[in-house]
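Ticket opened by: R.M.
Priority: normal
Category: complex prediction / small molecule

The reporter submitted a protein together with LKAUPR5Q and asked that the result be attached to this ticket for the collaborator who will pick it up next week. Submitted input follows.
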Amino acid sequence: MPPQQAPVIGKASRRSWLIWFTAALVYLLSVFHRTSFGVAGLEAADRFGVGAAALGTFTVLQVGVYAAMQIPTGVLVDRHGPRKVLVAALLFLGLGQILLAVAHSYGLGLLARGVLGFGDALTFVSVLRLIAAHFPGRQYAVVTSFTTAIGFVGNLAATVPLTLLLAGPGWLPTFLVAGLVTTLYATVVAARVRDTPQGHAAKTARVDRRELLRQVRTAWRVPGTRLGFWVHFTTMFAPNVLTLLWGVPFLVQGQGLAPATASALLTVFVFGSMLGGPLTGALIGARPGLRMPLVVGYLAGAALVWALLLGWPGTIPVAVLVPCFAFLSLGGPASMIAFALARDYNPLHRVGTATGVVNVGGFVATTITALAVGVLLQLSGNFRVALLAVVVVLALGTFRTLVWWRRARAALFAAQARGEQVPVQVRRRLWDVQEDRQVPAAA
Ligand SMILES: N[C@@H](Cc1c[nH]cn1)C(=O)NCC(=O)O
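Result attached by the on-call engineer:
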């Protein structure tokens, strides 16, 4: 087992904030590259000579690679430290974008987005691991939410500014410069980032595959990690499915809106998350006991929103769509609660792995739902029927979240009874598992 690192007590230093900011800019670049296909899609279709279905493959491939790489990323971060993994992330992101700049065939385009998805997958978990090492527990949620807010600047840069660059200098110079800048930024990260306030993480001995699997299994068995997985699964997939793939087709083909109006409506998700993230982070940082009530409140509200969207007779007015999307945009900030659970219920040397496990949840749910919506749309030709896939995944995720909330609480009661320190003090309720059926303790 790797040596334990001391958690930060008191306040984070100025140096830790600078290190975090340097790493958060990697996440900004990552989100910029991830979302750049949103506005480059039509030009890509022209360049590669493909239709809309083939374009959808780019998104599914990218999200699929991202999801598949989360657990390996967590393990890599715990073994080698976030600095090295962030440097690797920038090199893959840069290479992917440079390949895309010069690609003229669909095959090379797909390879480029796959490489880019690989680099993207290495980023977020590394930044969260860095935050866990550099900041005290009570600041974790708020610094994490600042990170995602910075990520949304990358998302915004990939909208109008990228459209202007593609229309002006064009595809090759735009993506080439974006790729080169990203690659060069790796030198800054290598020079400035430190894994822990003391320097680099203590070197861990080489561990074999069985030991790595044991590390993943141990993280997965912790009720707090499992709860985090289901919280992430259930809260963030619907905003993702709408913003990454089906939002524009639903609004244009299903609701008869102009493409420009549809794109403008989807920015509600960006601004909602940018505002909601720091608010949620500050709230749960100050009152960790509110974490699960907030998740359950969001899930109940999301069920109502989907009932309204899918049950609305005829065309849904924009005045209804805007508040509905604003509410759904809070799914991203709510999903950050999942990472706070992973951080609180795992020792620091396993936080990367647990974070990776949790992050698989939302992206697996996104991939499954995006594919299911496509299949149902093909079969029915009706968006209301196709989007029922969202409702089914929401119901499944809510059920599993409630099951694991109850189990995680039982583990907390058991730990409290043993006199152990627990992240949140909880009082037994009528619906809690009874004492004679307690499950093993978290962490
Ligand atoms: N929960 C998201 C981030 C988020 C926050 N607000 C809206 N979205 C997440 O898991 N992000 C991972 C990533 O790589 O972006």
